[in-house]
Amino acid sequence: MAGPGLAGSTMTPRHARAVARTAYLWGWPLVNIHNRRVFLERLLAPGLLSGIVPAGPPGTLAMLRDYIRPEERVVACPDRDVVHGFGILDGQLEPVVVQVPEFGDRFWVYQAVDQRTDSFVRLGKMYGTVPGFYLLAHESWGGAVPAGIAGVFRYDTRSGVVIPRVFLDDTASDRAAIEPLVDRICMYPLSEFDGTVQVVDWSALPLFDGGSATEGQGERQWVNPEKYFSVLGEVLDEVPPLAGEETLYERFRSILAAAERDPDIAETLRQTALDTDAVVGELFEFRNIGIPVTGNWTTQHNGAAFGADYLSRTAMGKADIFVNAPNETACYYQDLDDAGDRLHGVRTYTVHFPAGELPPVRGFWSLTVYNKQHFFHSNELDRYALGSKNQDLTYGDDGSLTLTVGGAGPSEPEKLANWLPAPGDEFSLYLRAYWPAAAALDGSWQPPAVIPQR
């Protein structure tokens, strides 16, 4: 609740506008996750939205058995190197159990983030996680942990998101090999736990109307600025303040209380949300966010661990909301060539990795092309990323690797395997280094420049 000095204070539109602008930039990702949970509450069982996007009601998840299709519009910057799953948590429900099968040498990681988009689990190959059953529980839950649970992870917000990712080679044989593993990945309420491994045939999921899950050019609008301040009060109740945020919460509640009393203040909040949304839109561009590195690339060092870095949290929420923690994935973003010009698909570019200078990883790496909305550009090759998953890349005699991006494509058949199609418009590149080695984390390795061909 608002403190006594703020609850009934006189409020001018100018003051309300200043606080509202901060509230919008602060809370955009939190409202985003809230609205995702509300959207999925209508589902009765795990399934596929619009036939391609895995989802389920809170407390469950759904898995794919292959790469995500390019029509997906639920999450920007989808990854075409892994098999995905997706699930929503609701801290007002009972805890959930997630199953971890024996993956052997295959790379895998389960991401679980709270409503602030901060990670609260350590589940993955980089953590040495053993197969078994793991409990995800709200910190308010005081029940007994049953025998057979290998670990417990707590979160303190109402909503959260769980995304399993499992590496898949782009081969028919690996698609067959991964199916029995994926069918043992699931999430279910603790009351259904009996100590035995549940197996789900994820190829037989029901299909649900996904609305805008596959429609339009950009990401489904999870945050509507027109309705932002009508939802923010709920979000403040769902997400407890971090240490030092108490006064911030009081200020936000004060403008919400003033808006209830004064239609002019309510209109000020609505208009400020619309105006500030344009600023958030600027944060969508990779070149406007993160930490600059060589060749006009940018990176970030606090993905899924934003804490009080609200600007980075919202910037990544807009551009790449479910980015992994840096020790799970080192991410490099690119909108520009080495001369600072915007990448455009009518031109041809090369990305050259000298011998011994591929992205340093213990997992895998990839280079992905996204259109200017950060989604895939459908093409005849059905190709959107190249990297460790591709067994047919052509290397130079000296061991170097040159990837070609955009343009009409190479005329020589032997060079086609190294070509990434791009849309005939502005586009972006995204270099992922899953389970990065130290050189990718300390900056001693940086990605090569993107060179336009004259």
TrEMBL record:
Domain DUF1214: 331-437
Top-rank taxon, per record: Bacteria
Protein name: DUF1254 domain-containing protein
InterPro entries: DUF1214, DUF1214_C_sf, DUF1254, DUF1254_sf
Entry-linked Gene3D superfamilies: Domain of unknown function DUF1214, C-terminal domain, Domain of unknown function DUF1254
Residue ranges constituting the DUF1254 domain according to the UniProt record: 60-189
Pfam families: DUF1214, DUF1254
